[in-house]
Amino acid sequence: MTASKKVFSLEGRGLKLNTAEDIEPHIASLRANEHVEEVWLNGNTLGIGACEALAGALRDKKNLKVAELADIFTGRLREEIPLALTALGSALLTCESLQTVNLSDNAFGLLTEAPLVAFLSQHGPLKHLYLNNNGLGPFCATSVARSLTKLAELKRANPKFPPLETVICGRNRCENGSMEAWAEAYRANNRVKVVKMVQNGIRPEGIAMLIKDGLSNCAGLEALDLQDNTFTSPGSEALAKAVVGWEKMVELGVGDCLLGKGCSKVAKGLSEGKNKGLKILRLQYNEIDRNGVKAFKDALEKALPVLEKLELNGNKFSEDDEVVFEIKDIFAGRGFGELDELDDMEESDEEEEEEEEKEKEDVVKRAKEEEEQKVAPEKDKAVDDLADLFAKKAAV
Prior knowledge:
Elements: H1 3-6, E1 7-9, E2 16-17, H2 20-32, E3 38-40, E4 45-46, H3 48-58, E5 66-68, H4 80-92, E6 100-102, H5 113-120, E7 128-130, H6 137-157, E8 166-168, H7 179-188, E9 194-196, H8 204-214, E10 223-225, H9 232-243, E11 251-253, H10 263-270, E12 280-282, H11 290-303, E13 309-311, H12 322-334, E14 338-339, H13 350-370, H14 381-395
């Protein structure tokens, strides 16, 4: 089987395909290809008619493993996207080998809740989900998380389905309101290996819930990236306790998370020797002071024998501090590993730190008061009806 038969691609061509007639010349070969394993459509813009025609070409592709559908709705009206996604979702449900789905960089939000839930909750073969930069917001993010919990139930009832291994859901404004649902989703899908939920506006209580009630149950976790969310003490404490259970961890990203004084607890957790396979540790812009970086130096020396990359730029110690040279000496002695360039360090001032700490506490408190107490929307009948419709279509 030639590579061209296995991969169908219109990637990055910037095509604007509105109708079935517009897309047909481009997908004629796909329609006739029963051996295709990967479909790459990212970087084009597809209307409802085009998506319906594409759905017809994709239906029952028994060998299809990868569907790259990122950035396919640029410039589309918000009312178009749910109908287009419904057509694609119903077709993809018939692809029994489809394990990787990338829907990143599409403006979804609340209007696409129903088709997203209908597909994600029913597609048993799903192993790798990429849902990054979709503007979900806490309500839709809650529904997505709940659909993954339902997916776990489906997988348990059907042993032929593989476990969910990858969840990429960053830049989606998941916020604290959806963390209870996400914790439940990871508890249900506890064989997940890669989780990346960067820049989601999650604050300390939400981070603590996500880790303590959810991710701590995922003993096989290999990569965790929660950068650009807010940890402070609650999040740092939860991470410090959970990290000792992630013995297969290779990459940990908690840069720009405001670890602050809680960083020493995380370092202590890493010092326990349970993460000997860790290769990448991202700790930039966390207000880590000299005492904190010394704790990480000790962890590196005693318990992280294969660490290849340590990121510490943007913290509160001098790039000329003795501990920096000690870290570099450790890497030099091993013959591998590197510290990132420390070219944006903050000045450390105790009085200023105390004032900033108080300001941060005030900001977190005010934000917490402003946020709705809890995001737990009732089941939407329209979502359930559409899920039933998907099931019927898939059976046709």
